[in-house]
Amino acid sequence: MHPPAPDAPRRVPFPALVELVKSALTTGVRLFQLRMKTPHTGEFYDLAAQFCALVRAGGGTFIVNDRVDVAQGVGADGVHLGQEDLPLADARKIMGPDKLIGISTHNLRQAVEAEAGGADYIGFGPIFPTSTKEHPDPVVGLAGLREVRAKVHLPIVAIGGITTKNVREVVAAGADCVAVISAVLAAPDPGNAMSELVKEIEGKV
Asked: What are the residue ranges of helices labelled H in the chain?
């Protein structure tokens, strides 16, 4: 499971977010992405440095969304890029061969191009309708996920509207892992929500 951290600290107070990350690590979550769309660079850098240390201490992998400079500066394990961010080839020159670079994709063509360009994994979606983004891309559905799975050999991180009620379908359709935001942050008990998602993915409920 791969929960992008929210636009902290605007959605969740920093202390609560720290506890949420710690809880996620104990439930088996291993990949974390810090996603902040409107921060000052200094604020983003400081938070990224703190979360990088926190995740590493818990045995997890830490990815920075969009900002190659911040990822490089804090020594993150990698960076996740959107279709309109720095080109993959340029990001690779900066990050080096050993860092993870993920690419957000929303159709088969983008997924194939990401693989050909040397991405380490792709994010693919939205699988279902989502309220996290103000202007989301068209829903691809489980059929779209299956189509990409048949053509792309990279790990696929499915994203968009994924909950405990549909996560098994998503994994069955070919996702290697899932990224969630609202399913955890909008839950009455975020820690329990993460635990239930992990159990669903592992087939323990």
From this structure: 14-27, 41-57, 68-74, 88-95, 108-116, 141-151, 167-172, 182-185, 190-202
> Which residue range(s) make up the domain with 147?
4-202
Write out the two tokens for 36.
């902040």
Domain count, the chain: 1
Q: Catalytic residue, from 67, 92, 104, 195: name it.
A: 104
Name the active-site residue from 35, 67, 92, 99: 35
Q: Is 35 a catalytic residue?
A: yes
> What tokens appear for 204 in the block?
């323990």
Residue 131 bears catalytic tag: no
Render each residue's pLDDT in the chain as its tens digit; 205 residues: 555 554 544 467 788 889 999 999 999 899 999 988 766 889 899 999 999 999 999 999 999 999 999 999 999 999 999 999 999 999 999 999 999 999 999 999 999 999 999 999 999 999 999 877 666 789 999 999 999 999 999 999 999 999 999 999 999 999 999 999 889 888 889 889 999 999 999 885 4
User: For this structure, is 204 an active site residue?
Assistant: no
The CATH number for 100's domain is 3.20.20.70
Question: Annotated catalytic residue: which of 11, 93, 133, 168?
Answer: 133
Nearest CA to 49 out of 36, 37, 64 is that of: 64
